[in-house]
Design brief:
379 residues; alpha/beta; Rossmann fold; 2 domains; elongated
């Protein structure tokens, strides 16, 4: 009877520790906040696909809001004035992915505010890196867009002006870049878009793929991903991999594609077929709108209502560890980036901490060994 009681107690302890271990592993899942406009807003868009690609160690949530810009004070609502800006900070993310700039390319917005695009972007970055969760901030280049879409979005301004500035900002703020524009080779037809701006499902998958590769191997323009580990050791070599996005980006990246980084989406999708997730527009063009259509943009481009509130995307167990993307680098001398930023204004790499769950597993093994020894002694 005594042996049975002791065995039952041991089994109860083991079961309790298993639950504790599972809880620790769950608590360590990295939270990814996806920031953007109507390209980011759909609940079933690229942010959800990203959660599936990253696997169970991550959970993603979209905070995209349709019709928003990165630029402030240009007439169209800036993302920082949206109803998802504060929730995205309250989420206490470990990783923040910003994809804004598509709506900024409208000539009326760009001409009014391009002189403060850099300062507005840096201010947005700082607002996230200063959070208590100290997230790594990833900058997406803006996806390609047609030059004759109904929204007056300018694919040329995106490619020639906005994306180069995003890369410049990424280098200055030491932020990894997800080169969404390069993921599609600058070819808008690969977006699977019905209106020349908003991606179809294949386009959302492509964006998710570019971001997932960057999270797994964060690369800063002019630098390479650091080695994995909670300390974020500085890395060397162009494609050195920072597993789980845990290394602080280092120096010496290999020059890559000539694309600009990912951006957010535009004012509104056409008609009923506009972006799901609350981003459909009151645009006059209907479901039959096609990429590259010569629809004349109205004086005041149609805007969709505010995008749907961020919807948590369940993380799948299937992880994907793609290789690092290679953003365009300058000829400036590369320097090794410290494991932690020197000021709150810079970006940092978020570690894929698993030490607690590993310790719990080791404790389970140790406890099992001790119980086995005790049982042998009592017998």
């Amino acid at each position: 009877m005594r042996r049975q009681t002791i065995t039952a107690i041991a089994q109860l302890i083991l079961a309790t520790l298993v639950f504790i271990s599972a809880g620790i592993a769950s608590a360590q899942a990295k939270k990814v906040a996806c920031i953007g406009d109507s390209i980011t807003a759909p609940a079933n868009g690229w942010c959800r696909h990203l959660g599936t690609k990253l696997g169970s160690g991550y959970t993603t949530q979209t905070f995209g809001v349709s019709a928003t810009t990165l630029l402030k004070n240009v007439g169209q609502p800036a993302y920082t004035t949206s109803n998802q800006y504060k929730p995205s900070q309250d989420y206490a993310p470990n990783i923040v992915v910003i994809m804004l700039g598509t709506n900024d390319s409208m000539p009326r917005n760009w001409n009014a505010g391009k002189d403060h695009f850099v300062s507005d972007y840096e201010e947005l970055i700082d607002s996230y890196t200063s959070l208590p969760s100290k997230p790594m901030v990833i900058l997406n280049t803006v996806p390609p867009a047609s030059n004759d879409n109904m929204f007056s979005i300018s694919g040329m301004i995106i490619e020639e002006e906005i994306n180069p500035l995003i890369k410049q900002i990424a280098m200055t703020k030491m932020c990894p870049v997800a080169d969404v524009w390069a993921e599609f080779g600058g070819d808008v037809t690969k977006l699977d878009s019905f209106d020349g701006v908003h991606p179809g499902d294949a386009g959302h998958m492509g964006i998710a793929n570019a971001v997932a590769k960057t999270i797994m191997s964060p690369v800063i323009p002019g630098g390479a991903a650091g080695a994995s580990g909670s300390a974020g050791a500085a890395g060397g070599g162009g494609s050195a991999s920072g597993a789980g996005g845990s290394g602080q980006a280092g120096a010496g990246a290999t020059p890559g594609a000539t694309a600009g980084v990912g951006g957010a989406s535009m004012a509104a999708a056409a008609g009923a077929s506009a972006n799901p997730g609350g981003s459909s527009a009151a645009a006059t063009a209907g479901r039959s709108a096609t990429p590259g259509a010569t629809t004349t943009a109205p004086t005041t481009p149609p805007r969709s209502p505010v995008g749907a509130a961020g919807v948590a995307a369940p993380a799948s167990t299937a992880g994907s560890t793609g290789s690092a993307v290679n953003p365009v680098v300058t000829t400036s001398t590369s320097t090794t980036v410290p494991a932690e930023p020197e000021s709150e204004g810079g970006c940092r790499a978020a570690g894929n901490a698993s030490s607690e769950s590993g310790a719990a597993a080791a404790l389970l093994l140790l406890l099992g060994f001790v119980i086995r020894r005790r049982k042998l002694e009592w017998s």
